[in-house]
């Protein structure tokens, strides 16, 4: 058997919480498969480099047979060099007293720089998945800053929200989580997101035929999914890390694998599907075909309630874009 070339994966924020949970899963083969070698380009800001050294020592100590090279750097042109995938996890968290506009501006600058560095150094086929918040708008900014990389290669993550929503429905219905399918999270990765319970299936039945408590679905389920991140912080004293890393693995794997059955939630560039404003990065139901191209699943029927919720979440994205683009001097 001929040996496969390694897939080069650049990860920003590599010494952070999510990075710590994510790198070992990439290195062990859980993201790209058990016979696919990988090269890791680990990117941190200067203050994170010492911790990154420790993480790299631990990666070394795992003696993962699939790992061909580990690069540690705070230089973006080195970090994104020849990358096949760029997983943009690092970003500046919102601090006390910081307005949302400030956060959009601060992170916006980071994602302009990363987008340019990806444009100039990564492979043209590089796919970019943004996790660092506000992930939808950060992704849009990176995409705008990387004109040589096709827009269709930029994604932001709502898979954690989909997984959370499935787990909530399974618990309520008293079924296994694998019995819940076709659950699309629409809109922004923020508390305004809409987990569409109307189209979800539980053991192939409509979820609303299994869970008939409409008030629970609207008033408990939807906000529970939207605020799950905050609930984890309250319980754990730290934000979701392992489950977020797991969702990164799920997202990448499912973007590389022909979709069987329904679809998965991924934030992609809108071309106006389902009446969504064009040119925002928003979460929609995505299917991948046999040769690895994705498309937005057509023909999903949305109730008026769903349409209203999705429109509100997308309006938030349009506003985020306006605020961030104004500060960064970007045009729509
Ligand atoms: P941490 O604060 O633990 O780690 C972030 C790391 O990024 C730090 O090591 C920091 O030094 C590094 N960093 C900051 N700016 C950087 C830059 N410009 N270039 C390279 N590295 C940089 O955060 P963590 O818990 O790992 O979360 C990372 C991001 O994921 C946050 O923005 C968080 O809000 C976001 N999340 C997104 C989720 C999603 O579903 N889309 C869910 C989980 C998570 O909340």
Mean pLDDT: 97
Bound molecules: ligand NAX
Rg over CA atoms:
19 Å
Stretches where pLDDT is under 50 for at least 5 consecutive residues are none
What is the overall silhouette?
Answer: globular
Strands, count: 14
Query: Could you give the order of strands across the largest sheet?
Result: 3-2-1-4-5-6
Largest sheet: 6 strands, parallel
Structural class: alpha/beta
* Secondary-structure element pattern, one letter each: EHEHEHEHEHEHEEEEEHHHHEEEH
Strand content: 15-25%
- The tally of helices reads 11
Overview of the molecule:
42% of the residues lie in helices and 17% in strands. The chain has helices at residues 17-27, 49-62, 76-79, 100-121, 135-144, 159-173, 207-210, 214-226, 228-236, 242-255, 304-328; strands spanning 7-12, 38-43, 67-73, 85-88, 127-130, 154-156, 180-181, 185-186, 194-195, 201-202, 205-206, 264-269, 281-288, 294-296. The model has no long low-confidence stretch (mean pLDDT 97). Helix 6 runs antiparallel to helix 8. The protein is of the alpha/beta class. It starts with 6 loop residues before the first strand and ends with a helix. The radius of gyration is 19 Å and the shape is globular. It has 11 helices and 14 strands. A 6-stranded parallel beta sheet has the order 3-2-1-4-5-6, sandwiched between helices. Ligand NAX is lined by residues 12-13, 15-19, 43-45, 48, 89-93, 110, 131-133, 135, 157, 160, 189, 229, 239-241, 244.
